[in-house]
From TrEMBL:
Keyword entries, A-Z: Signal
Signal peptide (from-to): 1-19
UniProt keyword Signal, yes or no: yes
InterPro entries xref list: Cellobiose_DH-like_cyt
One Pfam match: CDH-cyt
Domain of life, per lineage: Eukaryota
Protein's name in the database: Cellobiose dehydrogenase-like cytochrome domain-containing protein
Transmembrane in keyword set: no
């Protein structure tokens, strides 16, 4: 079990070796790729932002627009990144935001939703199970979470919105900042405006994996055992 944790650390560290350019504001999409973790056998659809923040997404292969589905999200960022976020509706306002940042040797996830270009408030419509693989070391930080409530929501007019798990060009948005949040131990902390932002077109169909629930459960249990 200790071997699994070491491999996970090595894999994540190997992805991050480039410094973040400060003051960037990105609005163009880049390509998504497939990433498979040899230790957990979980495969993700992966996107890397211009700020060198990696966003990885996995979905159940049974997911449809007819009902909400859980999303496995992994964010890996250089230690110089103060916070990073995903907007599931492809824009800042009126959709679930998953915001993450380092806190000591661990990481914090914060569920947010904005009503405009202002500090997003906390959002109870999405809940997160933080997996024990979430961590911070000398070079990077990593958040692994299972989100319930990120696949469906209501917009500013009360209209139901759902991610299309079969979509091959689903718009998602990212944001990040080199500035640390005000209170890292508090998931309701204030944080500064992004200095890198943009959208990408995510192939969610390629993010589907078979045996989603059992793979996530096995991954969580394996890392939990290695940490004891």
């Amino acid at each position: 079990m200790l071997h699994l944790k070491a491999v996970l650390l090595a894999l994540a560290a190997g992805q991050l070796g480039i410094a973040i350019p400060s003051g960037t504001s990105e609005t163009t999409a880049g390509a998504t790729t497939k990433y498979c973790d040899v230790s957990t056998t979980i495969c993700y659809a992966e996107y890397t932002s211009p700020a060198n923040v990696i966003y990885r997404i996995a979905l159940p292969d049974t997911a449809t627009t007819a009902s909400p589905f859980d999303i496995l999200l992994q964010i890996i960022a250089p230690r110089t990144v103060g916070w990073a976020a995903v907007a599931w509706g492809g824009q800042m306002a009126y959709n679930p935001l998953t915001v993450a940042w380092p806190n000591g040797n661990s990481t914090i996830v914060s569920s947010r939703r904005a009503t405009g270009h202002i500090l997003p408030g906390t959002y109870p419509g999405a809940t997160y199970a933080t997996l024990p693989g979430s961590k911070t070391n000398a070079t990077h930080w990593q958040l692994d979470v299972l989100c319930s409530g990120c696949s469906q929501w209501t917009d500013q007019n009360g209209k139901a919105v759902a991610l299309n798990p079969a979509g091959t060009s689903v718009p998602l948005a990212y944001g990040s900042s080199v500035r640390a949040v005000t209170d890292p131990s508090n998931n309701a902390s204030r944080f500064s405006a992004h200095d890198s932002k943009g959208r990408w077109l995510q192939d969610l169909n390629s993010a589907k994996i078979a045996n989603f629930t059992s793979l996530v459960h096995a991954y969580a249990n394996a890392v939990e055992v290695s940490a004891t």
